[in-house]
Amino acid sequence: MEKIFAIPTENKKLCAHFGRCESFALIEVENYNIVKESYLDPPVHQPGTYPAFLAEQGVSTIITGGMGVMAQNLFRKNNIEVFMGVGAEDPAKLVEKYLQSELENGDNLCDSDHNH
Predict the structure, then answer these.
(1) How far apart are CA 56 and CA 6, in angstroms?
(2) What are the tens digits of pLDDT across the range 10-40?
(3) Which of the residues 75, 88, 90, 102 has the least number of beta carbons within 10 Å of its own beta carbon?
(4) Where do the structural domains in the chain lie, given as residue ranges?
(5) What homologous superfamily is domain 2-99 in, according to CATH?
């Protein structure tokens, strides 16, 4: 199993608002082990830029506090899994929780509309 996770960060912790992050933590996993952690500065934020940017990096899963509906739809079109409603934590710890099936998909923290 090889996967690349992207986590929007601010000060090296998960940033609740996907579109306002200062960088993305990219965490590469092979055989359920983290093999590489790096930080990438995103392009200028405009609708649709982040999903395209992360798809180009080979990302398969996004872990975030929340994001807009358009971004969610663009990730789905690129076959990228989105985990939302996750609190500010160290990116590697979040990926470890995911790998141990302990990460829960929660409510979108970006808006108050809870119609999924």
Answers:
(1) 12
(2) 999 998 878 889 999 999 999 999 999 999 9
(3) 102
(4) 2-99
(5) Dinitrogenase iron-molybdenum cofactor biosynthesis domain (3.30.420.130)
**Other beta carbons less than 10 A from residue 34's beta carbon:** 15
C-alpha distances (whole Å) from 27 to each of 24, 73, 112 are: 9, 22, 29
Q: What is the pLDDT of residues 48-82, one digit of tens each?
A: 888 999 999 999 999 999 888 888 999 999 899 99
For 97, list phi and psi in degrees, rounded to 5: -60, -45
Question: Who contacts 95 (Cβ-Cβ below 8 Å, separation ≥6)?
Answer: 5, 7, 27, 29, 34, 63
pLDDT recorded at residue 111: 56
> CA 17, 87, 97 angle in degrees (round to 5)?
125
pTM > 0.90: no
CA proximity to 39, closest of 20, 64, 14, 71: 14
Residue with the two structure tokens 């979108």 = 108
